[in-house]
Amino acid sequence: MFAEDIKKLTKENSNFRTVLHTGVHSQIVAMSIPVGGDIGEETHDDTDQILFFVDGESEAILNGETRKVEEHDVVFVPAGTIHKTKADAHRAQE
Question: Within 13 A of 63's CA, how many CA atoms are on the CB side?
Fold first, then answer.
């Protein structure tokens, strides 16, 4: 069982990617994407992903469709979907 404060764990995470829990068909990962950075394009054939954005502004790109996302947004990525998350470079200018 995993029952933790995901916002706290993610804000404390200084690694690009830290696996917090792995189940049979899903995984909880805390990520810290630098401003202007991205996770690279990826696909997970056997698992869905639920992305919860804790802070900042980003773009979620799923099968070529781009959506702006920000703090408290959730994006559902079905298994087999080509996806990428890109941190907003405009924040670097603020």
Answer: 7
Residues 65, 58, 78, 82: is their CA dihedral positive or negative? positive
Location of structure tokens 């995470």: 13
Find out whether 43 and 89 touch, Cβ atoms under 8 Å: no
Q: For the chain, which residues make up each domain, given as ranges?
A: 6-93
Is residue 43 over pLDDT 50? yes
Rounded to two decimals, the pTM is: 0.79
Helix/strand/coil (H/E/C) assignment for every residue in 24-86: CCCEEEEECCCCCCECCCECCCCCCEEEECCCCEEEEEECCEEEEEECCCEEEECCCCCEEEE
Q: What is the dihedral of CA 61, 56, 8, 19, to 10 degrees?
A: 30
Instruction: Quote the CATH superfamily of domain 6-93.
Output: Jelly Rolls (2.60.120.10)
**What per-residue confidence (pLDDT) applies to 88?**
83
